[in-house]
Design goal:
With 1254 residues, this protein is of the alpha+beta class. It contains 44 helices and 29 strands. Among the domains are: 1-192, Endonuclease/exonuclease/phosphatase (Deoxyribonuclease I, Chain A), CATH 3.60.10; 346-496 and 551-594, no CATH class; 500-549 and 603-712, Alpha-Beta Plaits, CATH 3.30.70. The strands form 10 sheets. It has a 6-stranded mixed sheet. A 4-stranded mixed sheet has the order 15-14-17-18, covered by helices on one side. A 4-stranded antiparallel sheet has the order 19-20-16-21, sandwiched between helices. Strand 4 (52-54) and strand 5 form a beta hairpin. Helix 16 (551-560) runs antiparallel to helix 17.
Length: 1254
């Protein structure tokens, strides 16, 4: 783990473009560009914003590839555990994948030896590797004889780099080492020579650091600025020069390059430990073969451990600080960090000259049209002056934290300049209006190409163009737009069918227009002879709409709505002499713009609506309506018969496409979607012809962010939204831990982000809340966000969670948004509808049977929700909910536990008794009552909390003191680590061949429950909730565990969790024989099934350890030599024979298992007394289990004692074997917890049989 953590810092320090990783610790998540194989053992890390041009559609095992900058890069990891056949198959797959891809780099850890790359011998894998890569015409790039792997067992060259012929000559400075790493494998560094000729140095624009802005200095500088009257262009230049001079006086300039910052957890201490670890490693390598090698090796291991511990501590500390920072800056760095995982990797804009030029030519086509004549302004008509209100309104619309335009002036500084000298800006803007000239310097637009996610990065249509404009010019555009909208929103202005870029209209209006038409058609009583009709929706997409709008068509449309002449004149000048600036690797370039409205401008959307209005005013016949939002078009047709719907829509599509062609626009035919809405049981479809494409109706379509299905059930939409909201909630939950982190008020803001995702389009689909099957998942996500607000436990009821979080249920919120939508023009509607929601919520709260303790404390929701003070906390939530460290509550999950108070024997330890009656907390209760000046009771304590902040803090302090003490008492009564029970559970899992349960999840949970120091054990979710039950049902369906075995597993886990380990419960527990599945059978062919029999009486701990002694050699020999237990026998026969063999050896047996990864030393038959077990871990490469003969395998046993002649000797043997067995269990279980990868199990040398003594 420390090696990969250091890799993250190393790639930042050295500015690597790409890293090839083999056998990684874990895969990195977005925003990193990380491409991994199916086994998560080979990866390619693309850095510095470089784009991945191509990647595999489906991940392959042990290798992956990606195309970056036109070069195919392969990352390979061939583990040593692969057989020769599997290794050859892997190389064959790699050769097939790389055969048609050039140029090529193939690198990784092959675990193959050959003299070709400096090894002292050539193994079979080395010869197979050379033969497999020969058809690829690749060249070995490795140079020298420096080992790439240095471990305890020796050193070797197994990390190889191959390159195709045309690329091998460009590989320079290939070297081994040179980087600080704690891995056994050395880092390999090489560079690729750039064959392109060097281009001119790029000129970077003026940039200032907005954080260094001195507002007072900037304002004083602007106060002394004067702009002399004269030609308009000179006045604009004087204003721009004054603002630039003020920026130089009040801010520092930046180089335009982002500073290289280390990873967030990097400190000087870690840097020093890394250097010390590197020095210790070098000393240990140089001391190999000398007497002090052991000392040097121990020093290196200790230094490596210190470095790893420091990295873990640094990560933990920085994450806690990040969570605390969320309390101060809600939408700052913490929010950006967690949400960046959802946005994916940040791609760098393209810089290839050919790609950028092709993209500009595609997105900004050259349109040769008639020159635009300047309109004549009638005599006596003069443009009105720019008022102070217009200027201030335009200045308020400028966002402070957006990127600046080509002039580089921060928006914050510009707003100060306008506030300081509004007279100068008014005079310049008025001169522009009266002269009808839009200044030339404000027509420059800097192009930024944003890659579209999921699109091929080498296609021109895979980028979204954004034009960065000067903020001063955008303020003038805002004033023009406000004056123009007076005419566009008049009765003779735009069509009512346009819902985009207009005040008071939104996507919900457009969707409601489409859905209401469909509902009206389906509202009839019957089909045959009735009033029910079909409804169909066709959505059309306009190709490159905003960049291909003809300027002549826009001016003609402006004349139709009677736009004043001075506005026509300045808008006509606004289109002329526009320049598009963009950057490539050859330097900055520029081109002329001949059509379109700039994306990112203020005036562009309104001008687009004016031109597009001709499409929305088409006279479509036969009950076909058109709905528009920006450039999106939806055709809605209603008819009685399917053939009528199909004919009407085909005719309407032809009419719309012809109208678009007259405007110089075209449709993207392949993006057209068709939906047929009907209430008939039989699913029907229609086919619409759009150009050369025949589009068949789909079950559902996505229109403006809402998924509309054929039945108007909106179940598909809720499923899609829940998937997105679950990701958002999971990301935000990372900065909202149960203890610590931001306050509940800040957490509530994060929960609103989740609700905004869930409730988008609620007025459209609010009727779906009546169907519980559609609504259950959304309600669960909403509740999960509310639990994070109050830091509550997961088993808290829905009703109590909503009340404590002061957030209504999601169904009520959806209904409220629906009512608000229909009252959106009413100013008092929001307050009235919130009161109606509270009234309905109160009725549900009174009628519910859940959360009654919370209802007793908080009977009135309105007073609780509308409070002005008070923050929820982890301790206060336990008091208000009754769910916490109370024995009455814990008894729900353990029927054998007692709910009696340890101090008050006749009382039940519930939340009421603990906080209001128990003598243990009399002192804390008296302190709270002194602050409140009154005796506290369940009926009045919340009233005190709502009185003032001091009373709230008094109750919160009481809750924290009580809950903290209860938590400490619960920890004191927990038993210490009992590894024998852990290993018995592990033996059970192995015995049943369970693949999905046999992992660290369950074992670590058991260890956590019994560990005295819980910080050393990773916390995982509880075993005994719905997660375990779902896993149990899943296993039953897969036939990996039968019903009785699952029940026994649950009983075993609960006993280990809650019962005293001095005795085992009296209830008998028998696990029946399990039939192994086919995949498990072949994977673990040496695993046999047997029966576990627990004694039906009490077992002491020493007796339990006695029952785990080893079998006699004859029993092992009998099992090992019985060919009927081999993998070629049927599974039922195999289990039966194994069980019979055990029963023949002993009438009543106890079977346990030991991990096969531990080798047991051969027994010493000469020993007369007990002997401690000697445990050694076998080396995977040298001491394989397959190399041990059956005769030797039978002798590998753990001998405790063979002296059973007297009872005294037997008692001594039992006592000693208990101690030895305990040490062995602890060692074995600790190793199993540390082990990350799948283990190979063999029961033949791990069976332990001993009669159970009562």
């Amino acid at each position: 783990m420390s090696a990969q953590s250091l890799l993250e810092q190393t790639v930042l320090e050295h500015e690597f473009d790409l890293a090839i990783v083999s056998d990684q610790y874990k895969n990195l998540q977005p925003p990193y560009t990380w491409i991994a194989d199916a086994n998560k053992q080979a990866a390619i890390w693309v850095l510095r914003g470089n784009q991945v041009q191509e990647r595999p559609v489906r991940a392959s095992p042990y290798f992956t590839w990606a195309r970056v900058h036109g070069i195919f890069v392969f990352s390979v990891y061939a583990p040593p555990r692969l057989t020769d056949a599997e290794f050859a198959a892997l190389l064959s797959d790699i050769a097939d994948e790389a055969r048609s891809r050039r140029p090529l780099i193939l690198a990784g850890d092959f675990n193959a030896w050959s003299t070709e790359w400096g090894s002292d011998r050539t193994t079979h894998r080395g010869r197979v590797l050379l033969d497999a890569l020969a058809p690829l015409d690749v060249v070995l790039v490795n140079t020298g004889d420096s080992p790439t792997f240095i471990g305890e067992g020796g050193q070797s060259i197994i990390d190889l780099t191959f390159a195709s012929d045309e690329l091998a000559q460009r590989v320079i400075s290939w070297q081994v080492g040179g980087l600080d790493t704690t891995s056994d494998h050395q880092a390999i560094l090489f560079e690729l020579e750039d064959t392109r000729p060097p281009g001119p140095a790029q000129r970077r624009g003026c940039r200032w650091n907005a954080r260094s802005l001195n507002r007072e200095v900037f304002a004083n500088w602007m106060a002394g600025v004067t702009v002399a009257s004269g030609p308009l262009e000179e006045m604009v230049d004087q204003l721009g020069a004054a603002v630039v001079a003020a920026c130089d006086a009040a801010m520092t300039r930046t180089s335009g390059r982002r500073r290289r910052e280390p990873v967030y957890w990097w400190t000087e201490e870690i840097a020093g430990l890394r250097g010390a670890c590197l020095r210790a490693r070098r000393l240990a390598q140089r001391a190999r073969g000398r007497q002090d090698w052991g000392v040097r090796r121990a020093e290196y291991v200790a230094a490596k451990r210190r470095l790893s511990a420091a990295i873990k501590a640094g990560k933990r500390r920085c994450w806690n600080l990040l969570c605390e920072e969320a309390d101060r800056d809600t939408w700052g760095r913490p929010y950006e960090v967690v949400m960046s995982r959802l946005r994916g990797p940040r791609a760098k804009p393209p810089s290839s000259p050919s790609l950028v030029r092709r993209t500009v030519a595609t997105l900004f086509p050259v349109v040769v049209g008639e020159p635009i004549p300047p309109p004549a302004v009638p005599d006596g008509e003069m443009a009105p002056d720019v008022s102070l209100a217009e200027l201030r309104r335009a200045c308020r619309k400028v966002k402070e934290h957006t990127a600046p335009g080509p002039d580089g002036v921060p928006n914050t500084a510009l707003k100060i300049a306008v506030a300081t000298r509004p007279d100068i800006f008014r005079r310049v803007f008025t001169a522009c209006m009266r002269s009808g000239v839009f200044p030339r310097c404000w027509k420059r637009q800097r192009l930024v190409l944003l890659p579209k996610p999921g699109k091929p990065p080498d296609e021109p249509t895979s980028f979204r163009p954004i034009c960065m404009l000067d903020a001063v010019g955008k303020m003038l555009e805002r004033i023009l737009c406000d004056r123009l909208q007076v005419f566009t929103e008049s009765p003779s202005g735009l069509s009512d069918q346009q819902f985009g870029f207009r005040r008071g209209r939104s996507t919900i209006d457009a969707i409601e227009k489409v859905v209401s038409t469909a509902r009206e058609a389906l509202r009839g009583r019957r089909w045959l002879g009735g009033t029910k009709e079909y409804c169909a929706v066709v959505t059309l997409d306009v190709k490159n709409a905003f960049n291909t709008a003809r300027w002549n068509n826009i001016l003609t449309a402006l004349e139709r709505i009677e736009t004043p002449a001075y506005l026509l004149k300045i808008i006509g000048n606004y289109f002329q002499d526009r320049v598009l600036e963009y950057s490539t690797s050859d330097g900055p370039e520029a081109s002329s713009v001949t059509a379109g409205v700039p994306q990112g401008s203020v005036l562009g959307p309104t001008l687009w609506n004016v031109m597009y209005d001709a499409i929305l005013r088409l006279n479509l016949r036969r009950r076909v309506n058109i709905v528009g939002f920006a450039d999106d078009i939806a055709l809605v047709a209603v008819a009685k018969h399917l053939w009528q719907v199909e004919n009407h829509l085909n005719a309407a599509v032809v009419q719309v496409r012809e109208a678009l062609l007259r405007l110089g626009l075209a449709t993207a035919d392949q993006k057209t979607e068709v939906l047929l809405l009907t209430s008939r049981k039989r699913m029907e479809s229609i086919t619409i012809t759009v150009g050369d494409c025949h589009i068949k109706s789909a079950p559902h379509i996505r229109y403006l962010g809402v998924h509309i299905d054929a039945r108007l059930r909106f179940d598909v939409h809720l499923a899609k939204v829940c998937e997105k909201a679950a990701k958002v909630a999971g990301a935000l939950a990372r900065i909202m831990p149960r203890t610590g982190g931001p306050r509940s008020s800040r957490r509530k803001l994060y929960a609103n982000v989740v609700d905004s995702v869930l409730l988008y389009g609620a007025p459209i689909w609010s009727g779906a809340t009546e169907t519980q099957a559609y609504w259950r998942q959304a309600e669960a996500i909403h509740r999960r966000a509310c639990l994070r607000i109050i830091s509550g436990r997961p088993h808290l009821s829905y009703e109590a969670t909503y009340v404590l979080a002061s957030i209504p249920p999601l169904a009520l919120l959806a209904d409220e948004r629906t009512r608000l939508y229909y009252r959106r023009h009413d100013d008092a509607g929001r307050n009235d509808e919130r009161q109606e929601t509270l009234r309905r919520w109160q009725a549900l709260w009174d009628q519910s049977t859940k959360g009654r303790w919370t209802h007793r404390l908080i009977p009135d929701i309105k007073g609780w929700v509308e409070r002005r003070h008070g923050e929820m906390s982890y301790h206060l939530t336990q008091f208000l909910s009754g769910h916490g460290y109370f024995k009455h509550h814990s008894q729900r999950y353990d029927n054998n536990a007692s709910a009696r108070c340890p101090v008050c024997p006749d009382a039940t330890e519930n939340v009421e008794h603990v906080f209001f009656h128990c003598t243990r907390f009399e002192h804390e209760r008296e302190e709270a009552q002194m602050r409140l000046t009154e005796r506290i009771e369940p009926e009045n304590i919340v009233r005190f909390m709502l009185k003032d902040p001091a009373s709230w803090n008094a109750v919160s302090t009481l809750a924290k003191a009580v809950v903290t003490r209860l938590r400490q008492e619960a920890g004191e009564h927990q038993d210490p680590v009992c590894y024998d029970y852990v290993l018995r559970l592990y033996a059970f899992l192995v015995h049943y061949g369970i693949q999905t349960i046999r992992d660290k999840f369950y074992i670590r949970r058991v260890c956590y429950d019994h560990a005295p120091n819980k910080r050393n054990v990773k916390r995982v979710p509880p075993l005994y909730n719905g997660t375990f039950r779902k896993r149990e049902r899943k296993l039953s369906r897969k036939k990996e565990i039968n019903e009785e075995g699952a029940k026994a597993l649950k009983i075993t886990m609960r006993r280990m969790r809650y019962n005293d380990h001095d005795t085992v419960p009296q209830q008998p527990c028998q696990l029946v024989t399990h039939r192994l599945s086919k995949s498990t059978f072949h994977r673990h062919h040496n695993v046999f099934a047997s029966e576990y029999v627990l004694n039906d009486g009490l077992l002491s701990r020493s007796q339990a350890l006695e029952s785990a002694e080893l079998p006699e050699p004859r029993a092992l020999a009998r099992l090992d030599n019985d060919r009927r237990t081999g993998p070629w026998i049927s599974k039922r026969r195999r289990a039966t024979t194994a069980t019979q063999a055990c029963q023949r050896a002993r009438p009543e047996v106890r079977v346990a298992a030991i991990p096969a990864a531990w080798a047991i030393s051969p027994a010493s038959t000469a020993s007369a007394g007990p002997r401690a077990p000697a445990l050694t871990r076998p080396n995977d490469r040298r001491n394989r289990r397959d190399s041990i003969s059956p005769e030797s395998r039978r002798r590998w046993t753990l001998s405790i004692s063979s002296n059973r002649s007297s009872s005294a000797g037997r008692e001594e043997s039992h006592e000693s074997s208990a101690d030895d067995r305990g040490r062995y269990l602890r060692s074995a279980c600790e190793y199993f917890i540390r082990r990350k990868k799948e283990m190979d199990f063999s029961f033949a040398n791990r069976i332990q049989i001993q009669p159970i003594t009562k």
